From TrEMBL:
InterPro entries: Endoribo_LPSP/chorism_mut-like (IPR013813), RutC-like_sf (IPR035959). This is Enamine deaminase RidA (YjgF/YER057c/UK114 family). SUPFAM superfamilies: YjgF-like. Pfam families: YjgF_endoribonc. It comes from Rhizomicrobium palustre.
Length: 155
């Protein structure tokens, strides 16, 4: 039977990708007790990188928000893998760290980060409400617009 969170994803029209394997010397997830720390996810799909460029220069705030949402989808795919395929084991999204590749002086990091934050609440309801840091970065891997890391509590 499909779980509650899987049903919610289906209602939202979201199909989770197979999470990509790490491309360097790190792991995608580390579980310590009931806490799972997820490595930063970038806006990538099966077709490749999306939203490459600098927010405020090459990309709009709305593009950045869409990039953050895609990163969050990839985070959900990673937490699903860390929970042996059972998203109903997620008790809470504890924290998101959102890094925005933006021009100097850019001040709309929170608006970009909302792309990831809003999705967590859409998918997990009250358990998706989290603490957050939304910060500017001078550059990000592969010149993507956004990278998002997460901490989850799981059963």
């Amino acid at each position: 039977m499909t779980g509650r969170i899987e049903a919610r994803l289906k209602d939202l029209g979201i199909e989770l990708p197979v999470p990509p394997a790490p491309v360097a010397s790190y792991v995608a997830a580390v579980k310590s007790g009931s806490t799972v720390f997820l490595s930063g996810q970038i806006p990538v799909t099966t077709e490749g990188l999306k939203y490459v460029g600098i927010v405020g220069q090459d990309l709009s705030v709305e593009d950045g928000r869409a990039a953050a949402r895609l990163c969050a989808i990839n985070l959900i795919a990673q937490i699903k893998a860390a929970c042996d395929g059972d998203l109903d084991r997620v008790k809470r999204c504890v924290k998101l760290g959102v890094f925005v590749n933006a021009i100097p002086g850019f001040g709309q990091h929170p608006e970009v980060a909302n792309g990831a934050s809003d999705l967590m609440v859409e998918v997990f309801g009250d358990a998706g409400k989290h603490t957050r840091a939304a910060v500017g970065a001078g550059s990000l891997p592969r010149n993507v617009a956004v990278e998002v890391e997460a901490v989850f509590e799981v059963a």
